[in-house]
Amino acid sequence: METVESEPADFSESLDSGPQRARRCARAREGSEGVSDGPAAPDGPVRRCLATGRRLPQSAMIRFVLAPDGAVVPDLAGKLPGRGMWLSADRGSIKTACARNLFAKAARARARPSEDLADRVEALLARRCVETLSLARRAGEAVSGFEKVRAAVQRGPLGALLEAADAAEDGRRKIAAARAAQAVGEKAHGEKAQGEKAQGEQAAVPVVAVLSAEEIGAAFGRPRAVHCALAPGGLAAKLVRDARRLEGFRAGSRAAAAAIRPAAEPTTKDSDE
What we know:
By secondary structure, this protein is of the alpha+beta class. Helices cover 47% and strands 12% of the residues.
């Protein structure tokens, strides 16, 4: 569980005024000085976590709203009406907020968070990732299978690489080697400037290893898929954002899975290899 920096006396930086007001504020900023709905930052508005007191970009947080009956509802897309309450995207922050009744304190109203709230958020984030990956596949922006992914790496550029959390290390090393070889190949052909640019682009490609092989496979209509590559674009960026948030809920389980993986485990292959 994260260490609490400070429990704010007032929760103004941990709250928003709802999506409609946020849109009005954005229009006001474009046309005049207007009003503000939170401090701005290069990577988006910043909020203060209810539980830890840390200031983080909204993209690294989870928004919650209260239903009319007081139920605490996760709003992963940030579009539900009502005043939003923000928490760091990790299991510990949600458990702290529930244990200290911070939702009720911030909203100044009766709040009823469910006992499995952190599990619900994890499941919702995983579903968003799978749905986004499925959309990318249907749009022709995602491929799976070791050979297809290696070919995509060699062609470049990429928006993201996915490796199943339960993937064998041998497959991970081979994909990493293909990325390195692609950058070196550019330089070998005498295109130094282009090679340096390609090397930087390959190094900057986000590698997501938070979904299981079954979850990645579901997006491709098969039982399992271990490796996946996405083209640059909005879908890849959305998947990376949600995957980064999901990491806060699965970090412990991935470490446990790695610890119990048999040392002599054979290389895991996608079903289309």
